[in-house]
Amino acid sequence: MDNALVPTGWNGQxxxxxxxxxSSCNRYYLSGYEAEEDPITSVSFKSPRDSSGHGxxxxxxxxxxxxxxRNYKGLAAGGAREGAPMARIAVYKTCWDxxxxxxxxxxxxxxxxxxxxxxxxxxxx
Length: 125
Description:
The protein has helices at 31-36, 54-63, 102-115, and strands at 26-28, 67-72, 75-80, 91-93, 95-96, 99-100.
């Protein structure tokens, strides 16, 4: 990870997982899913990585980095760049194929505030 890209005041953790390394400021929350659903078999990636491509599609829109060959479920294919090029994004994944769980959402809010996040944007697929 390039520490020059980490904003001053960032207190967060970096979490690795299936098909995802800890080089990005991303975290995931499985406890609500595990408490409510059958054993983890239908979760596509037990990590901060998204399986639908939605995060890869929207992150460049918010942060402004140019990313090639992105799409969301086959739609809006191509490159993407928008927003604020110097912005930094930390992702807190709380939703899974079967839905979002309150315990994960609340834990993510608590962690984001503790981590020093300035702006929270909540999106549910």
